[in-house]
Specification:
238 residues; alpha+beta; 2 domains; four-stranded mixed beta sheet; 16 strands
């Protein structure tokens, strides 16, 4: 009887660490590689995404790759609740974890879409995802970019501003007044807003579902109306 009880206790204790390392539920996005799950900051293990203030270059023009990485992560986790397996903490006290939705390994999908690079602790299959993104010229690989760790080292003042902004965003007052995220238009190939020149020389963009969308041959593609407007395009009237 004593032996049976001892074995049962050992089995119970053996299960505790594994269960304690699992965090499940809904999450919100902080930036391209950081999540918040009910107050727990989670840093996705094995990836490094552009910082939210970071800019890259695409077709010779500045591109807000940091904002794009954040928006991409938001799209990926929209497919369902997350299950995150914690594997330690980073130097900032954030939980390092591999997170999955019912569809994706979140970190690997960020790499496959070209919106993050791998770090030293990346699982081996993340390198395969990197090669896919590089060969298909997805995301960052379509233009020129500075690795996020190099950008952070070169921009300490920007990082300090980001830290202050995050602290303010975590306050209850900021959460209650936060505006709804801008609608994004994407498809299997990426951004879906079509921009081109009209026959009168105007810069026009067309949204999916608008009258001339299907017949428009895009000269530029955008994910949000704000991006299109910042590039000098105006919305089609029909």
């Amino acid at each position: 009887m004593l032996k049976t009880r001892t074995l049962a206790l050992l089995a119970a204790f053996a299960c505790v660490p594994a269960q304690a390392n699992i965090i499940s539920g809904p999450a919100s996005v902080i930036d391209g590689d950081t999540l918040d799950m009910t107050g727990t900051r989670i840093r996705l293990l094995g990836i490094d995404a552009p910082e939210s203030a970071q800019s890259c270059t695409r077709e010779g023009q500045p591109w807000a790759c940091g904002e794009e990485a954040t928006a991409t992560l938001r799209e990926i986790i929209a497919s369902g609740n997350l299950t995150c397996t914690a594997q330690g903490t980073d130097v900032y006290g954030r939980t390092l974890a591999v997170c999955e939705t019912p569809v994706f390994d979140v970190g690997r999908e960020m790499v496959r879409r070209g919106m993050a690079v791998t770090s030293r602790d990346a699982p081996s299959d993340y390198e395969t995802a990197t090669e896919i993104a590089r060969q298909m010229r997805f995301g960052l690989w379509l233009g020129e970019f500075q690795r996020p760790d190099e950008w952070r080292a070169a921009n300490p003042q920007a990082m300090a501003r980001l830290a202050r902004a995050e602290a303010e965003a975590r306050s209850p007052r900021a959460a209650s007044s936060r505006p709804a995220p801008e609608r994004r238009y994407t498809n299997a190939f990426g951004c879906a807003i079509k921009g081109n020149h009209s026959r009168y020389g105007d810069f026009i963009y067309h949204l999916p579902g608008q009258r001339y969308y299907n017949e428009t041959r895009p000269e530029a593609l955008f994910c949000t109306e704000r991006e299109a407007q910042a590039a000098g395009f105006r919305r089609s009237k029909e």
